[in-house]
Fold this sequence. Notes:
The complex is a heterodimer. Chain A is an alpha+beta fold. Chain A is 52% helix and 19% strand. Chain A has helices at 5-21, 80-87, 91-95, 123-128, 133-149, 154-158, 162-180, 201-270, 272-287, and strands spanning 24-27, 34-37, 51-54, 61-64, 72-77, 101-103, 109-120, 184-195, 292-296, 307-311. In chain A, strands 5, 6, 7 and 8 form a four-stranded antiparallel β-sheet that branches. In chain A, helix 5 packs across helix 7 and helix 8 crosses helix 9 (272-287). Chain A is rod-shaped. In chain A, 26% of the residues are buried. In chain B, the strands form three sheets. In chain B, strands 6, 7, 8 and 9 form a four-stranded antiparallel β-sheet that branches. The termini of chain B are far apart. Chain B is built from six helices and eleven strands. Chain B is 48% helix and 23% strand. In chain B, strand 7 and strand 8 form a beta hairpin. Chain B has helices spanning 2-19, 107-116, 120-141, 157-176, 192-262, 266-281; strands at residues 21-24, 28-34, 37-42, 46-49, 56-62, 66-70, 78-82, 91-103, 178-189, 287-291, 317-321. Chain B is α+β, with helices and mostly antiparallel strands. Strand 10 of chain A pairs parallel with strand 11 (317-321) of chain B, so a sheet runs across the interface.
Amino acid sequence: MRIKLWHIGAGGLVALAVWLASGIYFVAPDERGVVRWFGRVPDGLHSVSPGLHYALPWPVTRVDTPRTSEVRRVTIGMTLEQRDAISSGDITALTASPASDMLTGDVNILKVTVIGQYQVADPVAYLFGAERPDQLVRDTLSAVLIEKLAGMPVDAALTTGKAALQLEVEQTAQAALDRYGCGVQLVSTTLEAIEPPRAIIKAFQDVVSAKKDGERVIDAATAEASRIAARARGKAAQALAEAEGYAQQRVAAARGEAARFESLLAAYRESPAVFRQRLYLQTMEVILPRIKMYVIDEQAGDPPTRVRIMETQPE
Amino acid sequence: MRTVVIIVLILVLATFGLSSLFIVDQTQFAVQMRFGRPVRTLIEPGLYAKWPWPIETVERFDNRLMLLEQPGEGQSEKEYLTEDAGSGIGKNVVVSTYTCWRIKRSADSVLRFLETMRDMDSAAARLSDVVIAELGAALGENDFSVLVSTDPQRRKWDQVLQQVRQRCSARVEAAYGIEIVDVRIKRLNFPEQNRRNVFDRMRAERDTIAARYRSEGEEQATTIRAAANQKRDEILAKTYEQTQKIRGQADAEAARIYAQAYGADPEFYAFTRTLEAYEKTLSERTVAILSGASEFLSLFNQPTQAPRIPIDPNLPILLETHAN
Lengths: 315, 324
């Protein structure tokens, strides 16, 4: 078969059609398209929305589709795997860990894990701003973290200062990343773990339990103090009540006795001799039956009687 | 045959045509070279024309922010010496850094870079040496506490690194057309031996703090108890005072009442009170020996009512009482 000119023409047309068709591109929902015509980003094509699009094919156009809604993650310091290995007692992981040491302002060594999450905020800057933007995020976070930690006392870093540290790292790192112009926005910076090295963690735990011991002793003393005070107040109230009772009783008794005496006196005055005799006899009636009584008859002129009284000792 | 010639001709023309066009990408600077000599420096991206190869060629450089990590892959961390004002002995530290740099955005700088560096890798290697040297110098001039300290007055982390950056810039900016955007320390540690000393010191510090917490707790507890006991004594003393006052007042009041009542007839009072006292004090255990002449027995002795019993005067009467 002879090749005729129209064959070539037809072949050329097909090739042209295929070439033109290769300009169709697709931007996924989590991506943004960045189009370059002859190496330059034309106006309006620096952030193409998801969907099916067309641009002139290679070599005129080049399309990149960075994932912009994807939240990327970077771990700073001791990785979670290392942490697991160490807590499960892997000695090699322990000795291999100086790389994740971080110094505090009072020259203590801590093991820290920070997880940074970030997104591509500006696709053009992300693609064209820096050579290795993801590594740059990691390095920046590390640098800011150790810088901030190196100005902090260890106790603050382990307890009250965590939230502030986290916030400060995020803000400072974001400022640096903005200055680098790498189109990245930090979504969150989380202080996943911050703790003393395994080798001396017992000493740190002991401080915590010492603090608790101290508080417990104080609590016990406080409880005892309030018990003592309550008991004293109770005793005082009781003593006062008793005194009041005594006072009332005393006065009432006095009044009663006085009243009785007055009425007796009134009766007595009506006929003193009879009253006197009656009262005397009445009393004797009550007394005499219960006492042991001996009567000694003593007539005038009798010789004196000798009375000897002996008491037997009770058994 | 003719067709084949046409095809070959088209291909040759196309090749020449295409090699006389070139694209400078957004991420690149380019230098157009004629027989190895630069003729045009291209800062802006776009499509440009040139004489076809081999007459003219194009050199391209990355214009993005470059990241130089120190130590790089497979290198060990660099040890530096800091000034130690306290002991006079330098403190060794192990430091990792990163440096952000880029070729400056001007035709002169790109040409300068082309002349002195040729490519990005050799620039990175050169820059790495400069950063190590300047960082070493800066750390050597400064006390360790300039980097690591809880005192914000002493601490000049940022200033030290700014100084390093400026000194590096001074050495590379004009010379190689490189701009240094940032130099930062991303890891700072002690060599293994010093690290153990730090651990020992940390442990000792913690032990001290733990002991302090415990003794402070004991101390406070003792203070609290002592205060409570003192308070209790105070309450009880005050109460005693009050109760005695109340009792005293009551006694006085009672005495007044008695005095008023009994004062009306003291003799009769004495009589009734004596009888009352008899009634109260004389019990089953009381032995009374009464004379027959007593008032109570006055009627007892009347001869008309009871015969007199003679008593032998020689016979003593023995009385025996029993405790019960």
